[in-house]
């Protein structure tokens, strides 16, 4: 009986700290998917996390970075059901949050032969060292689409 009590106490001492953890301070979302529905769902989840008080750091790479362009493709700006929201439209709403950051990968613009003027206002170009630091932060949670 003593062994069972000790085993239970040991299990609880390991499990309770994990259960008591607070939500992360920052959600790092890495979005590379070309599909507009995937892009929008990534923004929906980021927006919901922001509403719960979690800062957003969104990194757009590859075809997903096109949603950050002033001259974005129609797939990035066309409204989608059920709420007639577009990936770019919801991304812009997320950017209004005081702790939220949206950036494109450092190699995205040079790969397109463009510069930062091609991006909508408020979108930056990620510094690889700073982005790696954000991803390694013990207070961050990473999602990738």
UniProtKB/TrEMBL annotation:
Signal peptide: 1-20
Keyword Signal among UniProt keywords: yes
Keywords of this entry: Signal
Protein name per Swiss-Prot or TrEMBL: Secreted protein
Native organism: Donghicola eburneus
Organism ancestry: Bacteria, Pseudomonadati, Pseudomonadota, Alphaproteobacteria, Rhodobacterales
């Amino acid at each position: 009986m003593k062994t069972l009590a000790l085993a239970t106490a040991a299990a609880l001492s390991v499990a309770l700290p994990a259960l008591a953890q607070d939500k992360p301070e920052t959600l790092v979302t890495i979005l590379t998917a070309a599909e507009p529905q995937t892009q929008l769902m990534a923004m929906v989840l980021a927006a919901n996390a922001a509403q719960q008080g979690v800062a957003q750091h969104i990194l757009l790479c590859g075809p997903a970075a096109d949603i950050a362009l002033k001259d974005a493709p129609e797939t990035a700006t066309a409204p989608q059901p059920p709420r007639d929201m577009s990936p770019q439209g919801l991304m812009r709403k997320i950017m209004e949050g005081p702790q939220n950051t949206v950036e494109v990968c450092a190699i995205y613009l040079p790969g397109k032969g463009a510069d930062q003027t091609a991006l909508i206002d408020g979108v930056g170009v990620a510094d690889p060292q700073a982005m790696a630091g954000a991803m390694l932060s013990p207070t961050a949670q990473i999602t990738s689409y």
